[in-house]
Each structure stands twice: as structure tokens, then as C-alpha cells.
Amino acid sequence: MGKWLVFTTVISLITSVSPAWAGGDVASGKVKSAACAGCHGADGNSVNPDWPKLAGQGENYLDKQLQDFKSGARKNATMAPMVAALTGQDMADLSAFFSSQTRQVGSADEKLVELGQKIYRGGNPASGVSACSGCHSPNGAGNPAASFPALSGQHAKYVETQLNAFKSGERSNDPGKMMRAIADRMTEKEIKAVASYMQGLH
Length: 202
Hints:
The protein is mainly alpha-helical. Helices cover about 50% and strands about 0% of the residues. The chain is built from 12 helices and no strands. It has helices at about 1-15, 20, 25-30, 35-40, 60-70, 80-85, 90-100, 115-120, 135, 155-170, 180-185, 190-200.
């Protein structure tokens, strides 16, 4: 039943790609991204681990997050005012630009690699935690068509924060509650380990 739910959710996402995603202009997005550079870097590779790397992220995923920040479906005190004046085209252009950039990969904590790799590639059958690689791909490239984000090289601290937000319910803009259901079954140690593993994944 669980696998069927995941399958049907993926299919619905693949068949509902937004028109805005198809209309993003990279050149326009580069100009508009000047306002984003202070936190996320000129090319989308943020230096501060609290702020996500946007470079190489799926275009459709980025567009959805911007829309969710604007609508309030995803809450963030910093992002809300940043997106308030953005139009749908602005969001599409920014998404196209950052998606076209190359993400810089970090390194994982050697002490956490074994557990992190185990969770990422195989999950935890005993507690019902699905393997991350099933949706986010073995190398962390994500699934752009289904709006599953790229995780390769993402800051461990940011990933850990988001997993904990899904676990607590603070973040709830995941389709079909997929991430909330998974994160809720993860231990603090598993979250920290898999976040570190993703940082060095490529």
C-alpha cells in the first residue's frame, strides 16, 4: 500500500508540471538573481550552511518553493518578504537561472558516512524509513520531473534543519505528506548522519 501511494504521488507530480516552469528565461533570471546573491551566492552556491545551495536544483522544485513562500504554504521569515513582490515570471526566471548553475559539492563527516550511506541507499526497514535514493536518485541528482529536489552537495546543516522541520510538522509543503511521514520515523542520529552523507554525495 505504501509503495502504491508513493507511485501514484510521483505520477501525479510528473503529469502536473506548471507552465511557469516551461517559461523560465536563464538570462533574465541571472539579472533578477542579484537580490538573492547576498545569501545564496552569485551562482547559487551559498557559503553559510544555514542557507541552501540553489545551484543545480531542479527548476520545477525551485519554482514551487518560491510559490509556496509567497502563498505561505512554506513559512520562512526571511524568504516571505523577499518573494512578496515577485511575479510568476520572476519566479520562473530565477528558477531557470539557478537550475542552470553547477553545484559545488562538500564533504561528509567520516564518522557518519557508514550510517548516512545506509539510510540514504537502503533506508531503515525496521522503522519504516524509505531509502532516500528511491526518489532523490543514487547520486543525489533528484527527479526534476517529479519535483523531487537534488540533494547532492547540499549543506548538511540545512538538510538537517529541514528534516527536523518535516518531523515536527513545522514544514508541511511536501506533496502527500511524503517527507513528513519519513522524517517522523527517523532518529536524531539518522537525520544527522544522512544529512552529512548528502553533503559529500556526488
